[in-house]
Design brief:
With about 280 residues, the protein is an alpha+beta fold. The protein has one domain. The chain has 7 helices and 6 strands. The strands form 2 sheets. A 4-stranded antiparallel β-sheet has the order 3-4-5-6. The protein has a two-stranded antiparallel sheet with strand order 1-2. Helix 2 crosses helix 5 and helix 4 packs antiparallel against helix 5.
Length: about 280
């Protein structure tokens, strides 16, 4: 899902290693027995309708205007890129509306903030108006919160909700489990200044409706989110947000889990606070 359209947004955590989860083989429903092909119709639906949403919205507006608070006043040094590696330090010191906040005023803090904000913006809570507004209040620079709220309200329409398998009001149909999760794989800073930073977050995402008769089963996607952050009110906040596809690995030969297994996993496995 995307919040901005810098360089053409398409469409929603870090460490040195990669974790691959092999799900059990099953059969008899829309999930079991079918390999996850990279070009399946359901995946196309998710990529085009779902992931892009995170809001294509938010971000069309994000690129409006000319001033970039994140780099104003500085020369905008471009650091050398390096493989993601853990710092061994805590990511955040507090939480706001359930979202990790309170980051250090440095490059490490900016990367940690970007990773955790990607998770929040790609969550199922974004489909609920009240929770969405609370998330935006916590992570967007104060001057742009209203803009983001207005833009995203126009994106999360009844039609969009239906396209991802939800009821028109954004609620989940009885007997199904809605899944919308973003998992950062790594982060890097591409530009930085004293009070600003541009951070790229490479992510994997899940989106869909888990259920035996679901017409929009849970599928995965890969994308990179770019966030321009500004140090405001004692923390890192988002100024603009954009998204592009990939890098995408070659699909494995794992078979998809059953609808029941997917729903159970979503309910039992919680998320993390990500740190650079």
């Amino acid at each position: 899902m995307s919040l901005g359209d810098d360089n053409g947004a398409s469409g929603g955590y870090g460490g040195t290693g990669q974790t691959r989860t092999r799900l059990p083989d099953t059969g008899g429903d829309v999930y079991g027995g079918a390999r996850r092909g990279g070009r399946s119709s359901s995946r196309s639906l998710v990529t085009v309708v779902g992931v892009v949403v995170l809001l294509i919205a938010a971000i069309a507006f994000a690129n409006r205007g000319g001033d970039d608070p994140a780099s104003a006043g500085e020369s905008g040094a471009k650091p050398k890129t390096a493989a993601t590696a853990p710092s061994g330090q805590d990511a955040a010191t507090s939480k706001t509306s359930g979202i990790p906040t309170g980051y250090t005023h440095d490059e490490r803090g900016a990367q940690s903030a970007a990773a955790n904000y990607a998770v929040a913006l790609g969550s199922a809570e974004m489909f609920n108006k009240a929770r969405r507004d609370a998330i935006l209040q916590a992570i967007i620079v104060p001057a742009r919160v209203t803009e983001f709220e207005t833009t995203l309200d126009k994106a999360y329409t009844p039609e969009f909700n239906k396209n991802v398998g939800l009821n028109e009001d954004g609620s989940t149909p009885k007997g199904y489990t809605f899944v919308s999760r973003t998992s950062p794989i790594g982060t890097k800073v591409t530009e930085k200044s004293v009070n600003g930073a541009t951070v790229e977050v490479w992510c994997s995402g899940l989106l869909g409706l888990a259920g035996e008769k679901s017409t929009a089963p849970v599928t995965s996607s890969w994308f990179t989110i770019t966030m321009k952050l500004e140090w405001a009110d004692g923390d890192w906040k988002i100024v603009t947000h954009s998204q592009k596809d990939g890098p995408t690995p070659v699909p494995g030969d794992d078979k998809a889990s059953s609808a029941d297994e997917m729903a159970k996993a979503v309910g039992e496995y919680g998320g993390f606070t990500y740190a650079r």
